[in-house]
Amino acid sequence: MDLGAIRRITSRLWGPVCAVTAAHEGDAGGQIAVGVLSASILPEHPRVLIQIWKANRTHDLIAASHAFAVHPLAADHADLVRQLGFRSGHDREGKLNEIAWTPGITGSPILAATPGFVECRVVGILDATDMTVFLGDVVAGEWHDGETPMVQAYEMIGAMSPEWQEEYRRHDLAQREAAAHLLNSATNGSPA
Ligand SMILES: Cc1cc2nc3c(=O)[nH]c(=O)nc-3n(C[C@H](O)[C@H](O)[C@H](O)COP(=O)(O)O)c2cc1C
Questions:
Q1: Tens-place pLDDT, residues 32-53
Q2: Candidate of 11, 50, 56, 98 to mutate for ligand 1, largest count of ligand atoms within 8 Å of Cβ
Q3: CATH homologous superfamily of 15-160
Q4: 51 CB under 6 A from ligand 1?
């Protein structure tokens, strides 16, 4: 396989940068995700699909609560992307402490400073070894911000300072290593 050619295609298939949040038994968390997709052609039955890596704290909160919220972000949300996407709630308690939010109808945190959100209850789960695909029925949603354009990850990260880009690369590498470990453990037949 020509992995270079394949990557040129797959890198174009990521969605816009989003914040994904969830909460369970008083524990609230959130992360950044580009593995986010609309999953219904029926406007009266909206669904959203998200891909969440198993090493993430938010993964455990979604798996436990069977609910999540997705907030599409704009180019001026670089601070939020760094807060939620460059470090894990596993390493830092109270990750949402410095971010304004209120609980939605599923209990998932709704972040104040975002253009809008959809809130979902999980109706389908695909275990993909290193990550889980969660399919959610949309149960609530709001849009406040007119025509705010969404932003792709390469634009968002590319506009950051060299220091932040380096921080991103370090965290991304650690996440890839965790994913490779889970996949290799599964291939070798040993428990992850
Ligand atoms: C631009 C960007 C895109 C990301 N996309 C995803 C994604 O699609 N799925 C995922 O699970 N993690 C993704 N991440 C990584 C998580 O946001 C990151 O590992 C985060 O620290 C996890 O936090 P948590 O452990 O508190 O849940 C992305 C990060 C960034 C910065």
A1: 999 999 999 999 999 999 999 9
A2: 56
A3: Electron Transport, Fmn-binding Protein; Chain A (2.30.110.10)
A4: yes
